[in-house]
Amino acid sequence: MSSKSSHTAISGAGLLIALGIIYGDIGTSPLYVMKAIVPALIDPKLVLGGISCVIWTLTLQTTIKYVLLTLNADNNGEGGIFSLYALVRRRGAWLSAVAIIGGAALLADGVITPPISVASAIEGLQAKYPSIPTVPIVIGIIAGLFLLQSFGTQIVGKAFGPIMFLWFSMLGILGATWVAKAPIILQAFNPYYAYDLLVNYPGGFWLLGAVFLCTTGAEALYSDLGHCGKGNIRISWTFVKSTLLLNYLGQGAWLLSHQGQQLGGRNPFYELMPSWFLLPGIALATVAAIIASQALITGSFTLVAEAIRLNMWPKVKLNYPTDVKGQLYVPSMNRLLLLGCIGIVLYFRESSNMEAAYGLAITLTMLMTTILLTMWLWRIKRVTPPLIVLFVLVYGLIEGAFLVANLVKFPHGGWVSLAIGAALMAVMYVWLKAYYIKRRLTDFVKMEPYIEPLKQLSNDESIGKYATHLVFLTSAERPSEIEQKIIYSIFQKRPKRADIYWFIHVDTTDEPYTMEYKVTELASDDVFRINFRLGFRVQQRINLFFRKVVEDLVRNKEVDITSRYSSLSQRHVVGDFRFVVLEKYLSIENDFPTIEKLVMQSYFYLKQFISGEAQYFGLDTSSVKVEKVPLVITPVREVALTRIK
Fold first, then answer.
1. Is there a single domain that holds both residue 399 and residue 495?
2. Please, are residues 14 and 195 in contact by the beta-carbon 8 Å criterion?
3. Domain with 102 in it: what CATH number?
4. Sign of CA pseudo-dihedral 617, 623, 628, 631
5. What is residue 511's three-state secondary structure?
6. Where residue 10 falls among pLDDT bands split at 50, 70, 90?
7. What are the helix (H) ranges across 89-151?
8. Lower Cβ count inside 10 Å, N or C end of the chain?
9. Beta-carbon neighbour count of residue 215 at 10 Å?
10. What pLDDT does 566 receive?
11. Range of 266's domain?
């Protein structure tokens, strides 16, 4: 099967997987959306208008924009805002700012998703046990969920699909039961009721902030594209959307049957359940909320891994706990998310308070996706300008309205997600800016003049041998160049004599799973350069990849890795391999421009809290030498020294 067809192929297993990992966030939104839209007095105009807004938001935003349009913008089958950015980033340097804002906002709002989902489910217990303390239960479930991440979710993941199928079936059946009792709620399909609520109902426009909660999972849907393909997502979305609409309509029917009354803290979602089903319903809602949280955590790990490959995040340690393609575990991000989620629960305590903060940051992500998608339609797909203008006008208006309406949430807790997002944006900006500053200031020299000196050094027996095989990581993109600091390390810092010198360059491609390499022999049996081309979702296991390349070269008789010590050579002992990693530090001999000074000071401050490049690239720490080299941005030119006798 071709790569392209595999992204669109439809299968029963694929549909079940899609239910399990794609729709967790959007699938648990019925737990809190109607409670947010109708907070107190049950007004028929508010109910019909609110349900109508939900129906058309799911149709215009989730179905048309994301399921039908955005899923087409896949990067070799992978989705998400960074995958979309990778497709269009060569069309303008300013697009990096768009990607940073969108990615940081998605991570920030993700800190609220597990608490609000789990809290909304657990608070259903208060209908049966009014005095039960929910905060410790919510924190316990969230802590347990994060502690399980290091083991991977391969086994648990197989159960996600059937459980979510039960969940969506329950949503549909409960909703249909109440729709049959009050079919008048079907009038909500008429968009006039949405218009009437937004234009004529007092404060109706500001209710868009609550309505928006029904589509917050659309961005996660796009991010998880690579797990099961657009074909399975589109087919399964038909079932998912039908059950969601039935449940929202059912909640509306229940509300209409109690019009004129105060909601009084009751959750319309749980009111649909007969009393005998309440505990099983709460249990299923809790499991669905955990699955929703799991999908979001996994998505956050993927987002961070992509940001690292795009030089927008520190090179933190990445683990791959199972052999499932694309599944990874980021220990540092797991700890940050856990602390963030516990902090959110302790600060807001109840899901109704979290609703006031939820959704503000994700509107920024959706707007940023719209900008990147517009560039993709215009510059990559060459869509005609009138259609692009129509797309920008429609979704600029819709998402602009959602953003304005969500700004009401700022003083009620929305500032929390924006503050987290701003901190993440600052880290991404500093890391990307520092990357470009370092690249600009790295001195490259031609490799050719140093080939003969390297051969002479290799044969100079007056110098003790540093290693049989000496391996350097180089950022020089051209095989004909090398960093000046590497030449300095080999010849001057301490002459490093070796039998064979290896220079490894890693090039991260815009495709997700590229795994290619090229070998350039710079000096026969003495100096080699290996250029790896790895996709932005491939784990950087350079130690393993390098060993595989050397084995291929030996098999093809292109290199002899036997130790050249005479006593060892007779016994065909393989020589030792030693990696040298050069890490920069900020030299005190600098006279900075103000912006670069702040950026680089922030960069090196953050760098002290993360593991080094050797760990990120998957190098064997027992054979790695880390050398510190000064980074001089602008040397101080005037030194007022006077010689005296």
1. no
2. no
3. 1.20.1740.10
4. negative
5. coil
6. confident
7. 95-110, 113-122, 134-147
8. C
9. 28
10. 65
11. 3-435
